[in-house]
Amino acid sequence: MSGYLGWISGATDNAIYPVLFLDYLLQVFGNDDESEAINPASRFVLLSATTIFLAYVNWRGLHLIGKMSVFICLIAMSPFVILVVVGSFKVDTSRWFTLPSSDTDETIDSLDDDIAGGFFPNFSTGGVLWRPFLNNLFWNLNSFDNGGTLVAELDSTAPFIRAMMLGVVLVVTCYFFPLLIAIGASDSVQSDWTNGYLAAINTEVVGPWLGAWTVFAAGISNIAMFQAELSSDAFQLMGMADRGHLPKIFSKRSRYGTPTYGLILGTAVIVFMGVSDLDTLIEMLNFNYAIALLLEYAAFFKLRISRPDLERPYRIPLSTFGCGIFFFPTIIATLLVMSLATYTTYYFAFGSWVTGYLVYVAKRQSEQSMPVDGNIYEHVADESLQSDETSDILEATRESLETDETDSLEATIS
Question: Which CATH superfamily is domain 2-370 in?
């Protein structure tokens, strides 16, 4: 369920990027109102065509996607590097400590999303609208665990560890410092900070040319995020199929090494979800991703207790109780994000859970009705997912066969 919910949240997340890309594209070649004035049918066709084309590029292989993402990353980050360098000389540090106004009506009016509904409608304290704030914060900082779906494609895990550590540093610095400069070098108020406002900040602090460059860079950055998410989601499905949780069709690779049917399914979901509102998509994906995270944490503690001697190459150097204290703030923050969801999100999440569970039950019943045959390794490996003891049997069987092969080879040499 954790893998499934992680995938459905990723597919929902990926429906955002073609929408943002189109909106930014229309800002560059049209005007700010163009994205709202475009015919809905034409908008759907443009979004679908963009999604299918990018999915085809993704299907051509991870090496192509990796090179494209690095190139786009350099372009996307360049306007904010310039903002930090030029804007640092215009910063008034007193603006960093200006508290927001407790009157949030003006800020609510400036937002395009409908933040009413749910158990805590329009919840705000200290002048902060906590629902949009936490949802956007959670969305912008999540999905680091998705990188794990690509580890099996590497010859060594060392580059993966370095990439994850560098990713954390890049994400934090690329949010923190540009926002620090933007707040300190402008006279903006809280209600000004709507979608795309950093482009206006760059125009004010540096010049119109940097504002236009920011819009362009933000637009193409959505392509890189789309490709990264689509790849990790497809390999997530492939890994689940390899472990017997999904039909084997999802484990089939193309001639480029990419999971074809996982990409097709992900693309279909993206096209379907692309008609939804941006803020609704963010909240929906956050809720399912939060559940997936809580299941991952539960598995972490369960294995710590039930399998304390399991080999852990990247073990957290704390006791189980220490890990509980370490994880506590994250778990509370995750539950808080979930509590601020709207009723629509609750309905969507419940429907997702039921669908995923029914697919799993159907898969298990299909397996039980089929006769056991084929490779003994595959059969034992499938069963080992349900029983710890059978993993020992599998290992013993392999060692026995390896010993027999070694003895036979020595006899042949003699």
Answer: Amino acid/polyamine transporter I (1.20.1740.10)
